[in-house]
Specification:
The complex is a heterodimer.
Chain A: H1 4-14, E1 21-37, E2 40-58, E3 61-67, H2 72-82, H3 84-88, E4 101-102, H4 120-135, E5 141-159, E6 163-182, E7 185-195, H5 201-204, H6 207-222, E8 229-236, H7 243-250, H8 255-259, E9 280-283, E10 304-309, E11 312-313, H9 320-325, E12 334-335, E13 344-345, E14 349-352, H10 359-364, E15 368-380, E16 386-398, E17 401-406, E18 410-414, H11 415-419, E19 422-425, E20 430-438, E21 441-449, E22 452-460
Parallel strand pairs in A: 4-6, 8-15, 14-21
Antiparallel strand pairs in A: 1-2, 1-5, 2-3, 5-6, 6-7, 8-22, 9-10, 9-14, 10-11, 12-13, 15-16, 16-17, 16-18, 18-22, 19-22, 20-21
Helix pairs in contact in A: 1-2, 4-6
Chain B: H1 11-23, E1 30-47, E2 50-68, E3 71-77, H2 82-96, H3 130-145, E4 151-170, E5 175-193, E6 196-206, H4 214-226, E7 232-233, E8 237-243, H5 245-257, H6 261-265, E9 286-288, E10 311-315, E11 318-319, H7 326-332, E12 340-341, E13 350-351, E14 356-358, H8 367-374, E15 377-384, H9 386-389, E16 396-407, E17 410-423, H10 424-429, E18 431-434, E19 450-458
Parallel strand pairs in B: 7-17, 8-15
Antiparallel strand pairs in B: 1-2, 1-4, 2-3, 4-5, 5-6, 8-19, 9-10, 9-14, 10-11, 12-13, 15-16, 16-17, 17-19, 18-19
Helix pairs in contact in B: 3-4
Classes of the chains: A alpha+beta, B alpha+beta.
Chain lengths: 464, 460
């Protein structure tokens, strides 16, 4: 994307006025997406963007500028803008720019095959197949929307420590949302498959199955009764229940919140913060999961980080800046939405390791409660630990059996409290993709767990 | 009257010229719409007495829609380089070949409605030196840190500004341009007492640098954090809920998504088929009026280049109509209401609101007035899980909430870790009071204190 001697000159320019660290992050991304709605392929869209973000760190201050102009002139101008803070701060000391070593080309993919590309016609056929499968699921299905999206993102990172790294990330997603209509009103169902793959995603994923699952949710909820209001035991099915950990503690373990004392987990390393059944891992190297990559957006290889082991907090998640301050290395969690954004500490694939309980047995041993088959999303306040997560498919558990479907509701809890209320973890592990938003930036992440039970959670339904 | 003709510096003129040039490349038999945009932004984040980050950036891009035989293709690029313009048009043209033909798919044509000029450009912003922006962010952070002994941390104190210019030209006769500046201060604080911590956020927004008020942003953030200290899990039960102005904008913007003509046409709105029916309390009148220059979302032209106009959506509780762009209007057999919106050059237009307000309640109905009228209930100052717990299709509504109990018409003890639930349909009918305290917040809807009855609270 950019020649090495140019990168060296741009880094030198970035540090000309002083500074401890400079970095060039260049990105070339192409996206294409297609949407079927109301029985028609309504939109086919393609986009392309490329550019570079340059940062200069002086003490605790970061100067950042970005440009869509990848010529040497454009990059030098951005470097000058990014170094303005160092200049105004009177920074006199300049780090030397190390000789760039390493390779800006993506690393060896090991035994993983190169991502494939489908044609526009291939994508449209998938959409039509999903539409047919969803509509074939029941006469009450009144509307179907199916979406296909794929992106290819090449990144190149060079910094004044001499690092030169690159990655190429292909991501593909397919989603189906259905509306079912009856005299009880409208209900919705949604299912998505998303992986760090090209078109070969569809060797692993059946769009018909996705469509039927989405349709089944909407249909089941037509006869749903209002969710209960108040505290009840909750069994979370494997997969999307991982959102609980993402919200209840994942965000609170991001070092940027920790160093600002804006997390309930500050100062708790070595302490018991969860049920001993909890071993929580964040791992950017897992297969082709949605949060997987080879190097992060600061050029650091993805790695596996154990955050909580048998209930004891072992470590936080780190990016370059926060790690440098603590005299340690990044944990490979520096990510950004695009070249227009500064990197932040972000999760990758965050999951609870499976336990020893049988999933069906967990339900059978719950006399009364709520079974959450699918969670839709959540939100946390890292400072207080209070978080919510919303159900998109839930049922009542009565006498150890899954019975009536429930209308959508949010569940609310406090992270540190809820983690202690996990009393059973199953063996049926699975992962689910999601989009994580933080400070205005969205990045793809994975969440996962096995079926598990919480002894009590407040359910925000409307039934008294 | 076009905004561009009022301009003196000619900056947007070059974007118009560029859009015109690209639209001129249309082949016979195709309609082409070209949207080009260019922006500059500055953001300063202060932390602990220092600048944590300073971002300065410019960006530009193009989005092209091509319609051939009622088939629409779209492509965009994050650059206005000469080399990408033709490529983007070619890609949009190619995309059009694959989609399903649909008789309603078409570009907007001028409808004769005159645009109401709104001045959204602060000429002074461009000449404010970065050093003054840095000073303001540092002042904001310092002020927040020392505002109250219980403030333990100021985790973010930001100054930001944006200047955005855009032009839209089509082969169907559309030619419009707009430019807009905005500035903001935003601060997040953590208050602590013993083990307990609570957070609060505040901001001040304007069209530019002048008029931004750090004291206002700090007061807001500090008040919100400090008054929650000592919060306990609130009681369960049915209650009237008073939403503060900020929360009310969130509620209105959710309701507005069900008023989209596209959602209605595709059977994804609980308002579908209900025009002329009583969908809300008789005291509820909802209007979208982007021609009001005080509105944050004010605009002269919509995203298809038609004049923005005032649309009455609900009058005295009776549903009057929906918001349409050209395509969704055609589906419904009506004209566009000038309500196309788009999320920048990488998005295609669709119907949406820009400046919703409720007809205000009686004079004296500021926050205190509404609280006094309500007497007993729950006051909500923040909500979580709106994206996961509110479904604008089914109307199911369940959110996490923090706030204070209302006793004897006044704010009383703080509560947290509770949920507030109902359905949007029932909430519209259960309106208890609308504030007269209209405040234009950075949203598609105004802020007004709102009281809604008969909501289910889940807590202890």
């Amino acid at each position: 994307m950019i020649d090495t001697p140019v990168l060296e000159r741009v880094l030198a320019e970035a540090l000309r006025n002083g500074g401890d660290f400079a970095e060039v992050f260049a990105e070339d991304r192409s996206n294409s997406s297609a949407m079927l709605d109301d029985g028609r392929v309504e939109e086919l869209s393609s986009g392309r963007e490329r550019g570079a973000g340059i940062r200069v760190v002086t003490g605790d201050t970061t100067g950042f500028a970005h440009t869509a102009d990848l010529s040497e002139r454009g990059l030098l101008r951005a470097a000058e803008a990014a170094s303005a803070v160092a200049r105004s701060g009177g920074g006199s000391r300049s780090a030397d720019v190390g000789q760039l070593s390493g390779s800006g080309v993506p690393g060896d993919r090991g035994d993983r095959p190169a991502p494939t590309t489908g044609t526009k016609a291939d994508a449209l056929e998938l959409l039509q197949r999903a539409d047919e499968a969803a509509r074939g699921s029941g006469g009450a299905i009144s509307q179907v929307q199916a979406g296909f999206g794929t992106s290819r993102r090449r990144v190149l990172i060079a910094n004044s420590d001499g690092l030169l790294a690159g990655d190429e990330q292909s991501r593909t997603r397919f989603s189906v949302s259905c509306v079912a209509l009856a005299d009880t009103g409208m209900q919705t169902g949604y299912e998505t498959a998303a992986r760090t793959l090209g078109f070969e995603l569809f060797n692993e994923v059946s769009v018909e199955e996705l469509a039927r699952t989405a349709a089944a949710q909407a249909l089941a909820k037509l006869s749903a009764r209002p969710a209960p209001s108040g505290e009840l035991p909750v069994v979370l099915a494997g997969g999307s229940g991982g959102i609980l950990f993402h919200e209840a503690c994942g965000h609170g373990l991001e070092a940027d919140h920790i160093v600002k004392d804006a997390s309930v987990y500050t100062g708790k390393v070595g302490q018991l913060v969860a049920s001993p059944l909890v071993t929580l891992v964040d791992d950017g190297t897992v297969g082709s999961e949605w949060g997987t990559f080879q190097v992060d957006d600061e050029g650091r290889p993805a790695q596996r980080n154990v955050l909580i082991e048998d209930g004891v907090l072992t470590d936080y998640l780190w990016d370059y800046l926060r790690a440098r301050k603590e005299g340690r290395v990044s944990s490979g969690n520096g990510r950004r939405q695009s070249y227009r954004d500064l990197p932040m500490v972000r999760m990758t694939n965050t999951f609870l390791l499976p336990g020893k309980d049988d999933a069906e047995e967990i339900v059978a041993q719950t006399p009364r409660g709520v079974y959450v088959a699918k969670l839709g999303g959540g939100q946390v306040n890292t400072t207080t630990g209070d978080f919510v997560f919303g159900t998109t498919m839930a049922y009542l558990i009565e006498d150890g059996k899954i019975t009536e479907p429930l209308r959508d509701a949010n569940l609310i809890g406090n992270g540190p409290e809820i983690l202690k209320r996990i009393d059973a973890v199953g063996t049926d592990f699975s992962m689910t993709p999601g989009t994580c938003g933080k400070d205005g930036q969205s990045v793809p992440v994975g969440c996962g767990q096995a079926t598990m039970r919480l002894t009590g959670v407040t359910i925000g339904g409307t039934a008294e | 009257m076009s905004i561009a003709t009022e301009r003196t510096d000619g900056v947007t003129e070059d974007l118009l010229a560029l859009a015109e040039r690209v639209a001129g490349w249309a082949d016979a038999g195709e309609e082409v719409e070209v949207y080009v945009a260019r922006g500059t932004e500055t953001e300063v984040r202060a932390y602990d007495g220092q600048v944590e980050s300073l971002t300065s950036a410019t960006s530009a891009g193009i989005g092209i829609r091509v319609v051939v035989d009622h088939r629409l293709g779209f492509a965009w690029a994050g650059s206005l380089d000469e080399s990408v313009l033709g490529e983007t048009l070619a890609e949009a043209r190619d995309n059009a070949r694959f989609v399903t033909a649909d008789e309603h798919v078409q570009l907007a044509v001028p409808d004769g409605v005159e645009a109401v000029p709104v001045d959204l450009w602060d000429e002074g912003l461009a000449s404010v030196p970065t050093a003054r922006k840095v000073e303001l962010a540092l002042a904001l952070e310092a002020q927040a840190r020392t505002a109250d002994p219980r403030i333990r941390q100021v985790d973010a104190a930001d100054y930001g500004d944006v200047a955005l210019e855009s032009a839209l030209v089509s082969t169907t006769g559309i030619r419009s341009s707009s430019r807009k500046t905005s500035g903001y201060l935003s601060v997040g604080v953590i208050a602590g007492e013993g083990e307990a911590s609570q957070t609060g956020g505040g901001y001040s927004v304007g069209r530019g640098f002048d008029g931004l008020d750090p004291a206002r942003a700090c007061d807001d953030a500090v008040t919100r954090a400090v008054r929650l200290l000592g919060a306990i899990k609130g009681p369960s039960g049915r209650s009237t809920v008073v939403f503060d102005r900020r929360m009310a904008t969130t509620l209105l913007s959710i309701v507005s998504s069900a008023l989209s003509g596209e959602a209605v046409a595709k059977g994804r709105s609980f308002f579908a088929g209900r025009i002329g029916e009583q969908v809300g309390h008789p005291g509820l009148t909802l209007v979208d009026d982007p021609t009001d220059p005080r509105a944050y979302g004010a605009a002269a032209y919509d995203a298809e280049g038609l004049a923005c106009r005032r649309n009455v959506l609900i009058d005295s509780g009776v549903l009057q109509g929906y918001l349409y762009d050209t395509v969704s209007g055609s589906r419904a057999g009506v004209a566009s209401t000038g309500s196309a919106v788009r999320g920048g050059f990488a998005g295609t237009p669709g119907p949406g609101c820009r400046a919703l307000t409720l007809a205000p309640g009686p004079e004296g109905y500021d926050e205190d007035g509404v609280l006094a009228a309500v007497g007993e209930g729950l006051f909500v100052q923040s909500m979580t899980g709106v994206h996961s717990g509110v479904n604008p299709i089914s109307g199911d509504f369940s959110v996490g909430a923090e706030g204070l109990m209302i006793r004897d018409g006044k704010l009383a003890e703080p509560v947290r870790e509770i949920t507030v639930a109902s359905t949007l349909q029932r909430m519209l009918l259960s309106l208890v009071a609308v504030g007269a305290d209209v405040e234009w917040l950075p949203s598609v809807a105004a802020g007004q204190t709102l009281a809604i009855g008969d909501m289910q609270i889940s807590g202890a």
